[in-house]
Amino acid sequence: MPIHDQSYRRYTGRREEPGKAWLVIARNGILTILRKRLFIGLLILAWIPFVVGAVTIYINANYPQFTLLAMTAQRFRGFLSQQDFFVFVITVWVGAGLIANDKRANALQLYLSKPLTRLEYVIGKLAILSAFLLMVTWVPAILLLALQVAFSGSFSFLRQNVYLFPAVTVYSCLQVMVSAFTILALSSMSKSGRYVAILFAGAWFFSHAVYGVIYAVTGSTGFSWVSLPGNLNEVGDIIFHVQHRYSTSPAVSLLAIVVVIAVSIWVLNRRVRGVEVVQ
Amino acid sequence: MPEPDPAAVVSLESVSVSYAGRAALRDVTAAFLPGATGLLGPNGAGKSTLLKSLLGFLVPDTGRMTVLGLDVARSALAIRSRIGYMPEIDGHIPGMNAVAFVAYCGQLAGLPAADAMQRAHEVLYYVGLGEARYRNVETYSTGMKQRIKLAQALVHDPDLLFLDEPTNGMDPKGRDEMLELIADLAHEKHVNLILSSHLLPDVEQTCDRVVVLDKGAVATQGPIETLKGTRRQVFELRIKGDRTAFAAVLAASGFECHQADEDVMRVFVPDEQGARALFAMASRERVQVRHLQPSVPTLEDVFAKAVGEE
Asked: What does B4-58 look like in DSSP terms, one character per residue?
């Protein structure tokens, strides 16, 4: 008699209700990325500006003679601008293969044969990238804000800049949404993560280069809406109440961002399917 | 529209599906009863389209489908939590070993993480991948990939399995083992299954019933034994003379007849008559009988008759 029956057995245990599979996708994706040492190195690098900011706050709080280091709303805006580089690198690193690799391995039909919807699948993938992007934007920015309050010993800074918390949150979310939706849409259009990375980098830099050429020819910054990073910068300047860098209407920049996200959602809706219809 | 058969695990009523601009299923009405049912048909007959429609991947133009008593159009998620799907083409989650992959599929299907991991080990042993369960799936051979596709379909203990060409690309030994597993699931473990295949022996070995599709329509359906027509005798016949003309004479006399091999015909003779009737007819038509051997009705005969192969 065998000690353990290795034959097929019916399962009588608990089952989760449908609707939580996106959490499984997100958790698995995040853990998979975190197993890469090089990526951990990148995350540490992305937190160096936070460390610098924290030291600045400490010096400013303890040595009032260093007035140049005083924290202002502009410094928070500058901090998030600095993080743009890491947002770009993480977007390409994490996002390029999120759907492309599944398409290459024919995994979409496996996912969608389980009790999860296409929306849940996309939300799960978005959550993976968004978690890492917020980890280098919103989380350190909010921690800096908390440190500022903690070291100054009063809420006066927060009271004077009451819009900072929502500003950091809204801008970080905007940054994450534009990057995440764009790369996921591109990722759903290919089976090669490398190709997607090149496409995304191309779209990001090429659009800004086109703006640069137009600026060189016309001398006007009114065409910044053709540039993806330009639109984010313009809207960011408005959110943080700082000097605009372009003469484009913020409404136009915001509209351009909304269009990019809408087109990405449309592409995802077309491309994330259990069956690929070849006309 | 007729009501679905309450006993059926899957039923389709007048289902038509257009796929990539062409009609892939045309007015299909079929019932898959509990147990193992073969979904037979030549390549392009619409077998995979039918399974993908049942999974909700394709939306029918017309008609109604129910799976386990649930309407596919309204309860796709509830259905997918109770079925397992083994796709025709290779598929896996990139970068995972077998046990992590199967456990992940279990979690996606709603099993708690610990249960999913335990089930993953169990089903991997069951499908014969116990020793290779820590290997990356991307390094698996074709046969192993077929087995792991079965494992991921089984991990959450579905009430109904959709197996799409499960023996594709397998060597004879692996194919036999896969068919044994399928037969075991259907007959010993009482898992309902639909086996889509163009390989008649696979279906005959594992299934009790069959639905034959041809050009997107149901050509025939029912219990295999009934369709075989066991009340008839079958003869393999080789003649010297005009085969086409003699086949026409046989058909006119009510003898079903179709080509089996290059020069061999399979002739179905009603029970009350026998080989003598064939000899008499051959003599009358001045045809020389070179070979006459009794045979048994096979699924191949059913298939040939259903899809109109001569």
From this structure: PPTT-SEEEEEEEEEETTEEEEEEEEEEE-SSEEEEE--TTSSHHHHHHHHHTSS
Distance from CA of B123 to the nearest CA of A (A): 6
d(CA A228, CA B83): 44
pTM comes to 0.87
What residues form DSSP beta bridges with B281?
none
Of A58, A40, A62, which Cα lies nearest the Cα of A50?
A: A58
Strand order of the β-sheet with B83-86 is B83-86, B160-164, B192-197, B36-40, B209-214, B217-223
Residues 6+ apart with CB under 8 A from A93: A39, A42
- pLDDT at res. A69: 66
Whether residue B245 sits in one domain with residue B166:
no
Residues B66 and B170 occupy one common structural domain: yes
The answer to whether A279 contacts B108, with C-beta atoms less than 8 Å apart, is no
Domain that holds residue B47: 10-222
Give the dihedral sign, CA B216/B221/B224/B229. Answer: negative
Same domain membership, residue B234 and residue B198: no
Q: How far is CA B223 from CA B51, B54, B228, B230, B272, in A?
A: 20, 22, 9, 12, 24
End-to-end CA distance of chain B: 35
Name the helix (H) or strand (E) containing A31: helix A21-34
For residue B41, being part of any structural domain is answered with yes
Report the alpha-carbon distance of residue B28 to residue B54 in Å, rounded.
12
Same domain, B157 and B262: no
* pLDDT beyond 50 at A237: yes
In total, the C-beta contacts within 8 angstroms joining chain A to chain B are: 119
Can you give the pLDDT at residue B310? 43
Nearest Cα residue in chain A from B80:
A115
HSE, side-chain direction, 13 A CA sphere, residue B183: 13
CB contact under 8 A, A21 and B122: no
Nearest to A101 by CA among A28, A8, A203: A28
Give per-residue burial for A156-188: e unless 16+ CB within 10 Å, then b: ebeeebeebeebbbbbbebbbbbbbbbbbbbbb
Tell me if B115 and A14 make a contact (CB, 8 A cut-off): yes
Q: What integer is the mean pLDDT of A206-235? A: 93
Residue B1 belongs to a domain? no
Note whether B60 and B83 are same-domain residues. Answer: yes
ipTM: 0.89
Q: Quick check: B111 and A116 CB within 8 A?
A: no
> Region A45-55: what's the mean pLDDT?
95
Q: Express each pLDDT in B244-286 by its tens digit.
A: 888 888 888 878 887 777 788 888 887 667 788 888 888 888 8
Query: From the list B57, B83, B95, which residue is nearest A274 (CB)?
Result: B57
Into how many domains does chain A fold?
A: 1
* Cα Rg of chain B, angstroms: 22
Chain B residues closer than 8 Å to A7 by CB? 126
Statement to judge: residues B160 and B210 lie in one domain:
yes
Which of residues B205, B222, B239 is at a domain's end?
Answer: B222
| SS3 state at B203 | helix
